[in-house]
């Protein structure tokens, strides 16, 4: 297992494990825009290098202003963080929930952060036949029993959204029960705009709903770390009061400003590529005897053919220079479950060829 830190994208561990250089892998274990950073970003960062000799703006004002304009929100509704993970940590630090609810399988940081900050974690399970969604009755019980609930939208690792009416139902119920509902929208930018289900445009209606978004996946800047939270100004103030000064570095803020000015063609090309390649990759995996779920993000949850475990497949592919994410450790999933990123046609074809070779050789 190469997920020694609980996440994909750990190239250093992979390099040590498989005896290759970190840059020699084709990495399907992390879900980053296959187009790479938008045109002009690298040049903009190069021009900004001289600014690292001064402190970054602790109020994140220029980036926050550009973000507010793009989202159509007041700046008081926004909290800027060192990645979505810091944003989640600030939520927990600010709200101090005694009990945190999660719907498994889900992003491992929900549980890890909650336990790290002293919360008790309770959960309900989504079922495979229901795209790993929780039963609405179970969800309402989870909200009732929790001080704060995390919900992935679309969820990681299966990439499936909840419908907008169900989101509104959960948001209203959370308001009624005095529970905070944290909706993790880290991958929502990869979905065709008219198919996104988000409470963004009605966030002012809910005093206990917090949306969390990431800049690192869609804009391909995971090494810089940048994310943000959207919530009622009272929650944002409480989060800001818990944030370490200068936790968001200068180059990340510059990158954020540049990304806010991304040409529409970059965003449209990304979504078009992901939509087409996800379909093609899913069909190819099906021909190999794998089961996949109808995710809408830039990754797929995959159940390997009978007789194969995630560990076996990860090891065989790793020796061939291809990395995948084992999902065997996700509560609610099994030993044969993996997650693969949706990349470009060349890389996706490579993954399918290598998996076919491994399965065809019967190397179990």
From TrEMBL:
Top-rank EC class of the record's enzyme? transferase
Which UniProt key words apply to this protein?
Answer: Aminotransferase, Pyridoxal phosphate, Transferase
Q: Where is the Aminotransferase class I/classII large domain?
A: 25-348
Matches recorded under InterPro entries: Aminotransferase_I/II_large, NHTrfase_class1_PyrdxlP-BS, PyrdxlP-dep_Trfase, PyrdxlP-dep_Trfase_major, PyrdxlP-dep_Trfase_small
Its Enzyme Commission number?
Answer: 2.6.1.-
Q: Which protein family is named in the record?
A: Belongs to the class-I pyridoxal-phosphate-dependent aminotransferase family.
Q: What is this protein called?
A: Aminotransferase
